[in-house]
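User: Study the chain.
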Amino acid sequence: MVIKVFLASSSGSTAIKKKQQDVVGFLEALKIDYTQFDIASNEENRQWMRENVPGEKKPTSGIPLPPQIFNEQIYCGDYETFFNAKEDNAVYEFLGLQSPPGSKRKEIQEAEQNGDAHPAELEEDAPAETDAQEEKEEEDEQEDEEEDESRKVAEEENQDEGDEDKGEDNHLVSEDEEELQKLEEEEEEEEEQGSEEAED
């Protein structure tokens, strides 16, 4: 069975290009054999894709946009349904393929067939994260906490320095005020002495 991915090689839409790259990249990562069909340079490919997308799956405009995915003649879906299958770990089912041995989905299918466990139980038993991932997350959390603490200390130091500066400023202001006050008092005394001498 050949997976067919209908793409537009010369699409002007960055959204379409990104979706096409996501689909192709994911299929390559899973080592799933597929064939690309360019609808931009080949009218036959475009017509075949448009005719074989089921009516209920076509958008309101009536023209399905790439990427569109088929398994031989059978329509699998567009990017949205592919993305949902990817999120649910159901890409093989989406493509109409058997899950490879050792895959999480394959283990769930086998357990369901044998009646050993429900899928939810298997998913709970399966470790969600490896020990290395957990350790890295703990280290990241500790680093974040240390950064927060050092940031708080720095803020407090800045605030303390600001308070000291204010205190020094107040001290400077008060010294200036004292000098000014002394000068004014001296001037007043001189004026009083001068007026007293004038009266004599």
